[in-house]
Amino acid sequence: MMGFVRNVLADREMTLGPRAADWKRLTHWRLATDAEGVAWLVLDRALESANTLSEEVMLELAEMLGEIERAGPKGVVIRSAKRGGFIAGADIRDFRGVTAASEIVERMTRAHGIVDRLAALPMPAIAVIHGHCLGGGLELALACRYRIAVDGASFGFPEVMLGLHPGLGGTFRLPAQIDPVEAMTMMLTGKTAYTKKARSLGLVDAVVEERHVENAVRAAVAGSIKRERGNWKTSVLGLGPARQLAAKRMRAATEEKARPEHYPAPFRLIDIWEEHGDDAEAMQKAEIRSFAELLAGPTAQNLIRLFFLREKLKGLGKGEAGISHVHVIGAGTMGGDIAAWCASRGLRVTLADLDPQAIGRAVGRAGKFFDKKLHSSLDRRDAFDRLIPDFDGSGVAAADLVIETVAEREDVKKKVFAAAEKQMRPGAILATNTSSIPLETLRAGLKDPTRLVGLHFFNPVTRMELVEVVSHDKAGEETLARARAFCGAIDRLPAPVASAPGFLVNRVLAPYLAEAFLMVDEGVAKETVDKAAEDFGMPMGPIELADRVGLDICLEVARMLGERLDEPMPDIPQWLVEKVDKGETGRKAGRGFYDYDGDGEPKKAKEAPSPAEGMADRLILPLLNTCVRCLREKIVADADTLDGAVVFATGFAPFRGGPLRYAHDRGKKEVVDRLAALEKEHGPRFKPDKGWDKLGEAG
């Protein structure tokens, strides 16, 4: 009964058309005309929490447009019944496994015909938008004559993140609606425009509170809302030479972030606009053809695979965590950033450290993060209120979850555990952010080891999506389930891994970093080593990555793995030990392999030798070999989880779909043969793992 009441009240909070009306209902759409002759077309996709544009949804839209064309109302309102937003884009599940460009062209041409019918309606079509309006949803809205945004709405074209560009008319409708350079920037970057920005761009014609939606609709139908369309740049960039100059600048800016051979979509979009930007019909045809070719290509197929791997990991984070108060012990970079992230996601956080100045620095960093990422002053204030400096450590007694982030030393962590366990309340979880120490070692001395779990975040915490949820043979199932649900509650991806030296991600990274260190030891310029990895597709090279992780942490992990693993690894260079002893621990210290400027950017030599042929294999193949070993040793359950974890925690070349996917695409035999050749040349650390024999297809 209460659920029914809540639903009724929720409906009253949103203006969704006439209540007492004869609604025409299909599976996903419903249509009714109000007393003033305005048709309300409401999308409420069945059995889904959010609206997306599937082929079935589009076919039903065509049927509803037929009804509207016959009835001839004064205006048409398109609205979402979902509380979370308008439309989140196309349903890419429809394209899973479709790799024939000709079939995609056929399907997209049909979809374009439906959207064109919406754009050609003789009466004003009005998109009323709340929450997210993304991808195909924004393209549908652009086909309407007016767009009315409910305050708080957000707009964007995230297709570039899937190796695509807009494919349902966005490439020609958005540049015609707003400043073409701003339009191209939105599509090339995938960045979101929130309500205020969208209004200033002219992307929406009005911004209202929900209670004023009906009045805004009446004004639009009456034609009393001023329509924004283009600006002086629209005319200038309608000329070929001006567009060529702008396109040249766009390519240069895009090449700083992505390579055309790795991520072709943004470059294809620039080509289409440069060639056809003054001819919407030609641009539409080029958009469909280009979209189909990209979707059928390897980059989009691998990025779409990662989308589904992300969804799979998200699914592991569902459930009730029962955690509203987090106590973080250790206010260093990791601890402070974990505390700030949790506070930004709505949890109460107490942050403790023996050094009061460390807490002060952590709160200062949190403030900068809140200012940058939280979009309203109220959100920033609330996040600050939830982040509580805890100088005497009293928060541990009230917390639902205690996370230690102290030095990566077994004795220090055990001492923290012993003190915390005495104060923790029944039912609270004790978590360690250790990056490499097996939990079987850390749990020794605990009275209740069932409440201990590993929650291994990655640096930088505010950007890396993955958290390793580390189990051990005495961990309680409820503890593990709540830990995974906690990750979901703070918008992080839980990857279940078994307790073992280095767990999964650091175990996989160790040989990659160690080989890079060895190359530097051999006299190869550090910039050259990084360039070899970047040419492969890594977002940064292993030397810069080591600086970001922290050379002290790299050294501790290398020592621990060398002691605990029965597999050959390069010796730790003495110069690395000396760097750490001198405090040159990387980016956090301002100096490591590289020196860092005030913005934390490395100062790299501009002229460095190009990588030698095969250098990337020396770095990447040991990483692949260790992935296979971890899978064989059951540190992770399956190849999909492994691929997702390595990409989302390390940034492993996303367009390759994950390390095991890359091995599959390259050919298992070729990878094993190349490892064997490297073994002959460089030693037993390259010996192919026996797990290659039983490795199945990734994905």
What does the secondary structure layout of this molecule look like, with pairings?
Elements: H1 2-13, E1 24-25, E2 29-33, E3 38-43, H2 55-71, E4 75-80, E5 85-87, H3 101-119, E6 125-129, E7 132-134, H4 136-142, E8 146-150, E9 154-156, H5 170-177, H6 180-189, E10 193-194, H7 195-201, E11 206-208, H8 213-222, H9 232-236, H10 240-255, H11 265-276, H12 280-296, H13 298-316, E12 325-329, H14 333-344, E13 348-352, H15 356-373, H16 377-386, E14 387-389, E15 401-404, H17 410-423, E16 429-432, H18 439-442, E17 452-457, E18 466-471, H19 477-489, E19 493-498, H20 505-521, H21 526-536, H22 542-549, H23 551-564, H24 574-581, H25 615-632, H26 639-650, H27 659-666, H28 668-682
Parallel strand pairs: 3-4, 4-6, 5-7, 6-8, 7-9, 8-11, 12-13, 12-15, 13-14, 15-16, 16-17, 18-19
Antiparallel strand pairs: 1-2, 2-3, 9-10, 17-18
Helix pairs in contact: 2-3, 3-12, 4-5, 5-6, 6-11, 10-11, 11-12, 13-26, 14-15, 15-16, 20-22, 20-23, 20-25, 21-25, 25-28
